[in-house]
Design goal:
single chain, 250 residues, alpha/beta, Rossmann fold, 6-stranded parallel beta sheet, 13 helices, 51% helix
Length: 250
């Protein structure tokens, strides 16, 4: 198993790693079959955790949190952590699907809409011939009853997947994975909007815009309210990062 020290960033334990290192960490948990879950935390999730202590507990109970988003990755680097790039949910999901296809592993897709799931399946199978997608579930956009939840757990486990990708939006998907650790017999990955990006429902910003911290500008016409809200969190995020930097140096 790959040994990487987690670091404290704004009260959340992060793996300060690149995409390739994140892939190795996740893969090392696949044989456990105990519902270990991984989170990809961006500015939105970090700032939400300050308002909701339970969310911070959920993140710190995960098998690992990766720096999704240039702001989080950049902040970790400013604090002295040396790694390349960041760990986008879309990139990690594609890397894991490629790994699964090469190693005869099975994946399950949970979340989003039936339309998106159908497009996603076609896209993934085209990208990675031989990939075993053993099931998909688009859950109701409301709280599940105990009976519904039990049926979903049974359906997922009976398909014996190795990897469960969860796309419910943050922080709902993190809460769901936390509640199902030990119940789901697969490693769980919360990938947020990755289903939409890979299926083509949402367009991805060019790489240069991502690297220039301008991805939000590209997404603004597609998701105006959501994007503006998340960008409003950036000033406080920067302030908290600067405070942590000052405290670290002194």
């Amino acid at each position: 198993m790959m040994i990487v020290e987690r670091v404290n960033f704004q009260g959340i334990k992060f793996y300060p790693v690149s995409l390739e290192e994140a892939l190795k960490i996740v893969v090392s948990h696949i044989p456990k079959k105990n519902g270990d879950y991984f989170c990809l935390a961006d500015v939105h999730l970090v700032m939400k955790s300050h308002k909701f202590p339970k969310l911070k507990e959920i993140l710190n109970e995960s098998a690992g949190n990766f720096p999704d988003g240039m702001w989080v990755a950049g902040a970790l680097k400013i604090l002295g952590n040396k790694f390349r790039g960041r760990v986008r949910g879309t990139d990690l999901m594609l890397k894991l699907c490629e790994y699964a296809a090469r190693n005869n592993l099975k994946i399950f897709l949970y979340g989003n809409t039936d339309d998106t799931l159908n497009l996603l399946k076609k896209r993934l199978v085209k990208l990675y011939p031989g990939l075993k997608i053993v099931g998909t579930i688009s859950p109701p956009f409301r709280e599940l009853t105990k009976e519904e939840d039990f049926e979903i757990i049974e359906e997922i486990n009976s398909s014996t997947p190795d990897i469960l990708f969860v796309s419910l939006g943050a922080p709902k998907q993190e809460r769901w994975m936390y509640a199902h650790k030990g119940k789901i017999k697969a490693v769980q990955i919360g990938v947020g909007a990755a289903f939409d990006f890979i299926s083509g429902k949402l367009k991805q910003a060019p790489l240069w815009m991502q690297n220039a911290y301008l991805e939000w500008l590209y997404r603004l016409p597609q998701q105006p309210l959501k994007t503006l809200y998340r960008m409003s969190l950036v000033p406080e995020f920067i302030l908290r990062t600067l405070i942590q930097l000052i405290n670290k140096r002194w």
